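Chain X:
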Amino acid sequence: MRNQRSNNKTWLMPVLFGVSASLACVWGYQLETTDHIDVGNVFMILLFLGLSAVIAILVKYSWKVLEEKQKKEKSGVTVITTARSLRLSAVKKGYTRDEFFRTWMAIAACNFVVLLGVYPGFFVYDAQTEVIEVLSRSFNTHHPLLHVLLLGGSVAFFHKFTGSYNLGIFFYILCQMLLMTWIFTYVISYLKKHGAGKKFRVITGAFFGLFPTIVMYNLCSCKDGLFSAFLVLTIILMLEWEELTGRGEKKKKAFQIIISAVLMMLFRHNGFYAYLVFAVIVMVSARIMRENDRFHRNTFLIAPVILYFCINMVIGMALSAETGEHQEMLTVPIQQIARVYYYEPESFTEEEKEILHRYLSEEGLSHYTPRISDILKIYFDNSAYEEDRASFWKMWLKKGAENPMSYLNGWFLTSYGYWYPGAVINVYQGNTVFTFTYTDSSYFGYEVELPGERHSLIPAIDAFYRKLSIEKFQQNIPIISLLFSPAAYFWAFLYLMMTAAKIRKEAGMYPWILMGLVWLTVLLGPTYLVRYTVYLWYAVPILIYTVLLHNKNAVEEL
């Protein structure tokens, strides 16, 4: 009986993973092709059951192979000569200053060539709006104020002294690229410190320096690249903190964590919410396990939250930034109500219509688009919501109880691209922007918004990135398309995290929970875009090495 229970437990996680991944594939396919989920489709039910079984078996088998590998690692003793021991000791120290600089410059050089090809860089995703805020001295808290000042300030400064907006854009993106590639180099040094060989480090460096999705956001003016880089850096610093033993070393590392975490939160609001929940989870878990916080872990869990509040408040007050926008937090409820009204307006009584139109006009509701809520948010009346929130939520609950599947479809249609690997990122289809109209794909913004202007110095590179951004190209190639899919990286991340818990059993892996919480916040966002989850591209190579390849049981003998 005991063996049977143990066997059941070993199958629990693979089955849960298989069911979740299979459900994502089946429901995602339906949403992609028909804009709704059909729970009664017999073929899809059978496909779901079959996929669940196959995925669960594959996960279980992979864990069996890894467990056997780990047993061999534990039983094996590596006899190492004195010279080789000294070399391995050097490896565990990470890069020297010269090695670090050479690696950094190599990755940056790869990015710089592309920057010349797309000069002055990818100036897109609200870039014009942020620059106008600086030029007009009229600020609001819709966009992170630190990013508004850095981007808008760079463009305004260079324009004032040179008359060129392009130079300001180029300068900002170049500085951002150097900072992000520095962080990538730090990550590779971390891997070297943990025994990663030259081949793996070269592959990782090439991935960071050449893979198009990563390069796009290294050279993009939006805040998502910096946010993602600081998110990964914060996690790496926490992992290093757990490995240190000296109080002085831990104190220094905690200071670095605080700086990185604050910057991460200042570049995206959802980073704050995720970090707050993360801090609570870690502190409560420590209390439950009766763990004594000898080295003041709570300091770097609490301090960033306080500093973020203070810095944000000071910047907001100094700039007299306007607040009061609620639609970003209400994206999902707004989309759900609009979907019910769009398809079944007759289900609303006259009284319900009157209440609904206080918050969303008839014209606004006519702009309902299944995969993106940006237009609806423009029409949302914040003042009406502030005067009477109760009526909005009462109506939302009532219509949800009457139309549960419509609510589910309304939410999933703006988020399924994060969990269905076959999704084509084309949420802006039909939208006309500054230099083109989205038709086949909106994988990446690509363009240069006014007042900037594209002046490519290497047209072939410009053409290649345009093709990747607004054509289906890479999204239509089997297997290759998965390398560009946010959902594929999410499932890889989840598998690696589950594998770490099952095989490695290392409590020190807890910092990765922060990334999982950040991912959960995007499910409540206005749509699914690569920019909101680019940190998964940065994280997966690290987890592949630390979870699957790293031999922590190797024994050195002089």
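Chain Y:
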Amino acid sequence: MIMKNFGNFSIFLFFIFYLPVFSTEVEFFLYPREFSLGEHAKLVIKAYGDLNFKPISNHVQQNGVSIKFIGSGAETQIINFKVSKSQILNFRVEANSEGNYSLPEVTVSYGGKIFKSPTMNFKVTKRIKSQSIFSPFFKEDPITSQNNPPEVVFHTNKNSVYVGEPIVGYYVLYYNDFRRPYLERDPNQSITFPFFFTETLRQISVQIEPEVYRNGIIRNTLVYEKEIYSLTPIKSGSFSLGHTKFIVGDSLHFTAMQDIFESTSNTVHVVELPRGAPEGFSGAIGDYKIKLNKISKAIPKNGTIYINITIEGEGGGDGLKDPLGGISNQQGFKLVSSKKNKTFQKLSTGDYGFYTTIDYDYSLIPKQVDVIQIADVDFSYFSKKQNKYVKQKLSFPKITILDEIKTKGKQNLPQKKKRSYFNTISLYISSILIFFTILTYAAVSYLNTTKRFELIESFGKKKGIFLKEYLLSKGLKEGEAELLLGYHSKIIETDFKTADKALSKIAKKIILQLSKKLLIKE
């Protein structure tokens, strides 16, 4: 699906085809083609791929037209759910007087090749004079066209799903006559999604091309980013989703908040999962793995056994349950905590979807000296990739309960030393060694922390899936990239000091090794 410009983590969904203007490698877009004096147009140049992409000149001025480079970005596009990457160069286009103009030639370099903009014409009209809203003779132009009225449409990334399979839903405004579109859901209208479990997504922004073809005409677009939903169906059938009312208008018009339009619904078909579900299947859809991360193998009587289990994989995580829930009452295990992390990212298929990780922590205090053998745990899910039910088994090692821990060394009290002078000198030397050891440790710790900080700084504005793809392109393994991605996200949520302090010793060591590797490459 989709996502936005990339200083900020985001994704772009393109579900409607648009017409390119130039070559297949580099394309040029200019919009709008008509604007008032004092306003500006935008020239967007896209390159499809990962080669070096840059402008030859940051400022072009010719025949009364000024073109200035204003920044770059990147997009991941999904057209008919086929993923492609592109880089973007943005230019601001202005003119010093009204009239008809031809865009001066803009030259860019992509992968060492030179590309020049094609002939593009645009028109600059008279400057719009602002009118006082207190004038009794003030009249507003109509904010809609009879031929092409604005339309608010509810879209989903999939229209045919299984019960329990999450989809993403969002609203798009299609319009032609607004200079500065305004879109807000009518506060007097509620919105419900019957037979769907609904979550509002906070870390996903949806955006589509600023101009698309819809019903045979070119329409401008605006995504309503305040409400983007994760919708999980709980019942089979065909459902019309997203009907509500929106306040639509042009924010440059006084009557912008006086026109209300009903949204166009979207139909989603939900079907039951195939028959033949294994015993204990709880409705999970996706591709998951279950693994035992930590377990106490030998503890004293009345000590505590700790177990950590992780389930992770592609899917929304709905239907995943406590894996030891079936035996907890039999053997006395207690679920201490469970932490779920669901992200929207690029999956192994190349499409975008949900990836979920759930950590389960358990404890058990054995009451007798014995050997505990935890029964195997069966875990199952329906794999859309394989179109079948998949079963996994998690086995546990034996846990030995000791009567006592033999930590006894020599129990005799130390005898009084005769050579007290020698002992005093030894004590001084030991103190000095301890001091220098502490000082060395502090210095090394400071240098290591500095290295980790330099590594994060080297990422620049890369975030989310784009940071992960960057790290993988540098030769990192999937697990290493995920570790750095989580570390970077934690720094964004809090600060570097807090995130670094929360790292385990092992994680710090790994990140330090990766920083040496990446900083050398850089």
